[in-house]
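haha ok so turns out i had the wrong file open the whole time. this is the CORRECT one, sorry everyone. sequence first:
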Amino acid sequence: MFSKARLDTLSDSIFGVAMTLLALDVRLPDDFHPRDGQELIGGIVNLWPKFFPYVLSFGVLGLRWLANVRVRSRADEVPREYVRWWLLYLMLITCVPFTTTVVGRFAHFAPAIWLYAGHTLLIALISWRMIAITPHLEPGDHLRDRQVSTLMLIAASVLTILVSFIQPAQSLWAFALTSLAPFIRSWEKRRVTAD
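then structure:
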């Protein structure tokens, strides 16, 4: 058995570092030397293809971290199987800056989209598995919130891959679906209350 508190501390650290590393690729080129403010503004605006994946990945990681934090377990210790899945999950989290860099540089190529969306899909699938094996999981809204956000990430990842066959440069917009999870949960709660 392993201490859940220690695993949570490791998780927080890895999410923090991964989210920070995302920003490293959003920078002006070293050989960029603007002659005036107008060129500087143009250079900053031209960072959009890298800034969009940064914002997207920060959002995905932020939502994953929030979903993890909200899940409640009465267990102080977790079994080896849980730790193995959790470490695989955290390994995938640490790779997000890499896949974000690839998609930020080559979003017009479908394989870059497949790498990024396949990566987020794998994170979501492992997250779903983690829900199933969390010991002494406390049921409630927090659990349903995580399930809905995980399902939205799965849907967004699959849709992104499908759209990339037609319009690779536009396919990342499918990840906007992940921002709908709170609205879906709110609608779901109102529907249950009304019944």
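The longest strand covers residues 2-3.
again sry for the mixup
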